[in-house]
Amino acid sequence: MDIKGGSALIVGGAGGFGAATTRRLAAVGAHVVIADLAEERGTALAAELGGSAQFVKTDILDEASVSAALAVASSNGPLRAVVIVNGGPAAGARIVGRDGKRYPFATFKRTVDIFLNGTFNVLSQAAETMAANEPMADNQRGVIITTASIAGFEGQVGQSDYSAAKGGVIGLTLTAARDLSPLGIRVMTIAPGTFLTLAYGDGDPAELNARWGAAVPNPRRMGDPDEYAALAAHIVENDYLNGTTIRIDGAQRFGMK
User: Is 103 a catalytic residue?
Assistant: First the structure.
């Protein structure tokens, strides 16, 4: 699918993965809406890209907020691509700790709300918007890319909420692709491993790599957000990628801890 002249919505577009993807899609001629709560970073990125991007403050758990962001994107051209990169807290604690106390249900629910329910909120509304597009070649109207994690496959100790949420995103992928296939809307998921994003802190990259990169078999370093963005951009372009989750992790498999 050629996205040039169309619009794209990047949810979490002010973060590491989102900002890199915003730059990639803007570079190939899409008008990009950066949907995020991080107003300072989002407006700075939009200013950097000039007329190719704009920032819309967006809460993925609010239906009206997501609808407003989609309306802005659609006003710039047919909505052809949506990339969902949810960010939020994911507390680390065992279901029942060594102190005998259970993990709070409210905390578990909040994590699932952000990473899974927020994804569905954006995906369903984006698909409804794309359904009104004029079809391109092979009846293609658009593509939605969600973001999981390799923790959705190999959850570590203390990741019950995060792993359940990301596993839910992985499980949603094929069903959503099948549901939306008559409309010519593709659904794909990217499952990153250990990447140099704010999820691992904002310290010196060399120090972060020394701490986390050694667990990655090859290349023995943390991932660069632009490597995620390159994959997202390829998914947009390649109409035969549909209904599956692609790991991007340097062959890393999370251990128990």
Answer: no
186: β partners: 143
What's the whole-number mean pLDDT along residues 68-82?
97
Q: Please identify, in words, the CATH class of the domain defined by 7-248.
A: alpha beta
Sheet of 142-147: strand order equals: 53-57, 31-36, 7-11, 79-84, 142-147, 185-192, 245-248
Q: Which two tokens mark 135?
A: 């079809």
DSSP state of 15: S
Angle at 24 between CA 180 and CA 216, to 5 degrees: 90
The model's pTM: 0.96
Rounded CA separation 71/197 (Å): 29
pLDDT confidence band for 199 (50 / 70 / 90): confident
pLDDT band at 248 (very low <50, low <70, confident <90, very high): very high
Select from 38, 52, 36 the least CA-distant residue to 118: 36
DSSP notation for 101-145: PBPPHHHHHHHHIIIIIHHHHHHHHHHHHHTTSPP-GGG--EEEE
Domain limits, the chain: 7-248
Catalytic-labelled residue, pool 162, 200, 228, 240: 162
For residues 181 and 214, is the Cβ–Cβ distance under 8 A?
no
- Report residue 197 as tokens: 């994003």
